[in-house]
Amino acid sequence: MKILRAFIFALTIAADVAYAGSAADSPAPISQPATASTPELNLRWMMEGEKRYRTNCGRCHQPPHKFEPRVMATAVRHMRVRGMLTDEDMKYVLYYMTH
User: Fold this and answer.
1) Residue 13 within any structural domain of the chain
2) What is the pLDDT of residues 12-21, one digit of tens each?
3) Phi-psi region of 84 (alpha: psi -120 to 50; beta: other; left: phi over 0)
């Protein structure tokens, strides 16, 4: 069952990436926060991102694998509605998932 879920998740991400690449009006992916420029701030962003991932995403998903920022931005945008993530949650989770 876990393999089937992982496969469906991968297909969903692939379809979203393909659609995002072809849509002219698709939003730009969230970039790395400009404030996280020192190792201490990077660590804080990672810790906060992990906390928010476990709170919002960990109910349904295992700890993440690291993916390209573009792929993860698409996945996070897709899951934002289902997980009821705020903009701030989304930024922290995306930072955690890509670093």
Assistant:
1) no
2) 555 454 444 4
3) left
